[in-house]
Structures are given as structure tokens and as C-alpha cells.
């Protein structure tokens, strides 16, 4: 029996639970947003009704209290403006970018940061920032990612890295996150695939490549072809020395790797594409002729006659477009725009986020603001409901056993039962 | 009562109200007295977010029954699907460890992480995970009522032969191969982590110490795998390793099935090494290049042990036949680089030579029952049945 990489991936939780079409993704986000708005609305109504009632009770108990207070409370009742799906996404994406900086600050390995960001994005697929404060969730997500990626870090030490933050605050939303992750922790990244592809291309450049037999290209032929790869697609052939080729492959790797560490984890790429599609698209951006050549070695010549090859290329083109849509790869960012312009742009973005966060403050679910208390409350309730009974039962059993022992020491133990 | 001025939400602002009982009381009050709340849906539905609702749906699919066993790490219950009481499951409820200050326990995270990814007939199936109100994680696992491989060889009422051993060992080898194919190291393979299903299938369980293969040059902990099954490189403190560590453990289990006793028992880590060296010889740079660079390696004192000759193996493992002995010794090669990989184990001629492995429905069975499954599942990785001091000191990470 053959067990292919496709089968491995299709069995993964990333494929089963966290892969979507663009339409499914948009629909889920719309549904989450709608549900959150309804919840906040209901909670706000409840709270207002509560306040009203209180002030009524209050004025009844203290007869001299005037009704002005009551009216003032009513007067504040403005209709709340809620976040749209797009605004929610902006906030989440902004926090994801903050997590990259946070990862650099704490020197977390790249897969911890990448996993933490996916946890955050997965969390906010089924939850809204209006319900759960995104900054708290993002900090806890990356702490959880440290645990799932085998990177040692205590909650206390981590919390100490933030102003006025306790380990309890970091840990409070952990269950919420785990629940929203639907109890799946494994995130499949494109990093190892890229490394493997890089090593394979280096081997090809050294005349040690292995192409599938049916494709009829020898290692030497592949090497020769590679040395004449044009700089640009459709460009003139360009004879390189083996050293030049090796350095070109490495340059492509470095660029692709940087794309994987930014655009790939910050866009919806993980929800929409497989890790291999993602690294190949990043490589396509980094060096198109080289990547096209690499892909062609996997198909019988000419590759364009293979429907699979064409299908793959279409998918990669879509994925490439998505990656390029990220601002870290936008032309204005990389081309020689002046530093002032860049700064102005950043400031503009920061202001935009600032406004959104202000807006968020007015439409938050009042029931879910203090996660630490909420967490404690849930645990306390559980104790009241069941565990206490369990403890009581245990204590009684111990007591019973104690009595029995005392009885035994007086009367002597029970006679052994006959077999 | 909830609305008396003393107890009013104004004096206890915000989230304190969300004590479930209180919220409920408030909501009921509101529904009765205030027209405003008519817009809100039912109180419990309304306070549950989407993820909570999904969790709730999962939880309601199962019925929890009698308690089968309790350990320091988990409580195991019998259970079944609500819609079909004949579909049995085991529900493993992870206890909250008060001493662990970093949130959800690593064992639970590891076990859930890997079982969610691995689906194979010889690996215990994870039907679902849900959390209960007290925030305990519950794993809904496959019901495996026929005990484990260690009990099987210990049970003198059960008689078995070479073809049966071949069948059990082969199922183990498939499970390990599948883990490695998915880049997962189990790191706690031993007889009592190999449970037996009603149909005779052997299932690898307890992934509480598992991890993915590390990237090159990323160190891992050597403090894993229950001592009797721990390979020499880990005892010498190796921090870079791969699937070979599981292959060694698999070899020891294979040997135990044939011997019907522990093959390499010891009381301490140091003694474990000497027990191994008594059988396989003290390793040197000639027999195991690189061994002298491992942290805890000490050059052999005089006289150093020499490997046991073939007669030793034939006398003790005759039941496996010559090809079985050859496979066993290849799995138990000291140098991890020369030890067989899980793939090579499966390609060995022992499996295809006579006798054919027994069909799983014809395999001798244990009378273990659900009780034993409870005992096996409640354990935390690295613990030996007695639960005495021979626990591996468990590093929480690495």
C-alpha cells in the first residue's frame, strides 16, 4: 500500500476543520459577526433594564430620591454602533502583526509565532472581537502556541514581559481558546517544505537532481537547463556560472522564506491553501522562472500538456495573488518611496486602527469583559454544582473507613472470605 | 433575593454577574418584569458563544457511565453514544493539576494534539473532545475492553505461540511506522500502552509524551520513555534523536512477548545501562561511532561487557525462529544510526516467512475487561503500574 503525502494531509485537522473556500470563510465570518452583535445587543438591553429597575427600587426605598437620576440613565441610551466584518478583520490582522513583533521581542521560534497567529485567526473565525478582547486573546494564543510547539516558557515569566500583567490574566482565556480551536492544536506550516524544495533545487544545480523516471530527464540535463534559466519569464536565456546559479537559488529561498514569515501567516492563506501550495507560491513570487523550472521537473515533458500541471499552476496563481495583496509585499512598500512617505503611511494606519479600537470599546459584550473573573466564576460554579458533592462523598468514605479500622482494632478484622 | 439592593449589580460591577446561576436568575426576573428583555433569546442559549454551543453539542452526543479508574492525571469512565447505546466509548477526564502553574497540562495538550491527527487501525481512536463546565477536558476514546499486551504475557492462563506473537508485534510495528510517517515520536511505547480491542486488534495508546520530529539542531529532552524501554542513547543523554528511540522500545516489547517476563528490568537509570550492556556489550567508538561524545557516556571499565553470542538469543527467543531473532536484534542495535527504521522493520522477511501471523479474531484473549482499560488509560506517560518512585522524571517540555 502506498501512503502519500496527500493522504497524510487530508487526515490532518487543518484540512478537516480549518480549510475553506473563500465563500465559506466569508459566510462563517458574517455569521459570527451577526451572532456577536445580537449578543451584545441583548446584554446591553439586559443591563439597561437592570439599571432602570435598580433606580426604581432605589427611589422606592429612599422616598426622597428624585426621578432625575432615572431619567439621566435613560438619556444615555444611544444606539450602539457595532463593528462590521471588515473592521473585525482589520483589528485581528493588526494584532497578528503585533504578535510578530512580540515574537521577536521574546525570541520565540518562527513556528511558535506562526502557530500563535493561526490560533488567533482560528479563534476569531468563531468569535468576534466584540465578545472577547483581542489583545488578551492574542497574548494567550501565543502562550498556548509555545506549549503546543514544545517551546518552554512559564506563564509567570511570560506575563512579566508585559506591563501590569499577571500569569492569571494570560491563562484565563486558555479554555476559551482551546474550545474555539475545536480541540485541535496541530498547525501545518510551509517552512519545512520550502527548506526541502531549496535543498532539492541545490542538488539539481549540482547535477544531482532526481526526476521521476517516466519524465526522461537526466540529472545532467536538468543541470544544463537550469544554468540557462532567464532572469524573467519570457526573458532571454542567460548563461550563469554554477556559483551564480547557487547564489540565485539561495536568494530566492531567502525571499520566499521572508514571505512565509509575514504575508503567508498574516493573510488567509492557511485557511485557503495547503502548505505546499503556499511555499510554492511564495517561491514563485521570489523567482518565477526558477520555480516554473522546478515544477516542470515533476511532470512529463512538456508539462503544459498535463491537466494536473495546469490545475496546480492556476491554484498557485491565486495563492500568489493573495500573498501579494498583503501590504508587506505591496510595490509602494518595497520600491524607493521615501522614508517620510513610509512613516506617513504607518501613522495613517495606526490612526485607522486607533479609531477602530475606540469604536470597539463602545460595542463590547459587557458580560465578557473581565475574563479572569469569568474564569474563576465558571470554576466556582462547577464546584458548587458537582465537585463539592464528590469531595463530601470522599470525606465520608474516609470517615467510614476510619470507623471500620477502629472497629477492626477492637473486634479484630473480619475473617477472610472463603474462595 | 438577587435583586436586593445590597446584592445589586451596581455594587458588584460588571462580570461578577456572570455567575451562571445569577445571570439566570436575573434573566428570569427580567423576562417576567421587563418588556425590554423579550428581545433576548433564552437565557442559556444567549450566554453561549458559537464555540460553546459546538462544545455543548459534542458533549451531548455522549453518555457518561460508571467510573472505571482514577489516577493522578485522569479519571476514566465507561460511556456510550447517546443515539446508540451499543456504541461504547471510554471517557478520559483530565484532572486539573493544582501544582502545574501554566494552565492546561502538557500531557493533555500532547495527547489531544496527536490523536486528532493520527487515524489508523492500530492507534487508539479519539472520537471527540469536549470540555465540561468545570473546565476539565474530556477525551472520548475508543472502547478497548481486552486488556493490554503486558497483562497478556503475564497471564499464565493464556497460552500463545510464535504465530500469535508475530500478529501482535506486526500490529505494533504498523502503528509505530504510521506515527513516524506522520513525523510523530511516541516516546512511551511499552506493553501496557498497547491495548487490545474486542476484535483482537492491538492499539497504541497514551500520547502524553509524544512530540513531532524536531528540526535539525533543535535539542529535545532525553528524559522520556519508561525506563525498561528506554534506548541507550537517551540514557547517555542524547538530545538529538529520531524514530530510532521508538524502535528500541518496540524491540523490548517484542522480546517480552516472547520471554513472558520483563526483558531488561532495572531499578535505576544507571542500572538500566548496565543491564543493557550486559546483553549487548559496552559500546565503544568502534561499535558505535559518536557514542563517546554523549553527555553521560563513560568509557568502559575493565573488564567491559561483551555482547551475548547467538546461543544466548536462541536459548531464550527460540519461539521467534531465526528470522525473528535476527529482526529482534536488528531492532535492538545499540547504535541508533544502524538500528532498523520502522519502515525497515516492516520490510523484514520475518513477517512473510512461515508461520503466518494468526488472524486477529483467532488470537488468544485476556479476560481483562473494562476495568483494566480504565487502569491503563488513567495513567500518565512514563508511569509504571505500581505508581511508585520509578516514574520518569517528566520534563514538561522538550
From TrEMBL, chain A:
GO-annotated molecular function: cyclin-dependent protein serine/threonine kinase regulator activity
UniProt biased composition (Basic and acidic residues): 398-408
SMART domains: CYCLIN (SM00385)
CDD domains reported in the protein's UniProt record: CYCLIN_CCNH_rpt1 (cd20524), CYCLIN_CCNH_rpt2 (cd20525)
InterPro entries: Cyclin-like_dom, Cyclin-like_sf, Cyclin/Ssn8, Cyclin_C_2, Cyclin_N
Positions of the Cyclin-like domain: 97-179
GO-annotated biological processes: regulation of transcription by RNA polymerase II
Keyword Lyase: no
Protein keywords: Cyclin
Region described as Disordered: spans on this chain: 41-71, 381-419
UniProt similarity note: Belongs to the cyclin family. Cyclin C subfamily.
Protein name (record): RNA polymerase II holoenzyme cyclin-like subunit
Automatic annotation (TrEMBL), chain B:
Catalyzed reactions per annotation: L-seryl-[protein] + ATP = O-phospho-L-seryl-[protein] + ADP + H(+); L-threonyl-[protein] + ATP = O-phospho-L-threonyl-[protein] + ADP + H(+)
One function term, GO molecular function aspect: cyclin-dependent protein serine/threonine kinase activity
Protein kinase domain sequence ranges: 62-351
Keyword vocabulary terms for this entry: ATP-binding, Kinase, Nucleotide-binding, Phosphoprotein, Serine/threonine-protein kinase, Transferase
Record-annotated active site: 188 (proton acceptor)
Kinase recorded as keyword: yes
Any one of the GO CC terms: transcription factor TFIIK complex
Amino acid composition bias (Basic and acidic residues), ranges on this chain: 373-398
Chain residues that bind ATP: 68-76, 92-93
Biological process terms in GO annotation: positive regulation of transcription by RNA polymerase II
Region (Disordered): 354-398
Key word Ubl conjugation present: no
Entry-linked InterPro entries: CDK (IPR050108), CDK7 (IPR037770), Kinase-like_dom_sf (IPR011009), Prot_kinase_dom (IPR000719), Protein_kinase_ATP_BS (IPR017441), Ser/Thr_kinase_AS (IPR008271)
Family of this protein: Belongs to the protein kinase superfamily. CMGC Ser/Thr protein kinase family. CDC2/CDKX subfamily.
Protein name (database record): Pkinase-domain-containing protein
Species of origin: Delitschia confertaspora ATCC 74209
Source species taxonomy: Eukaryota, Fungi, Dikarya, Ascomycota, Pezizomycotina
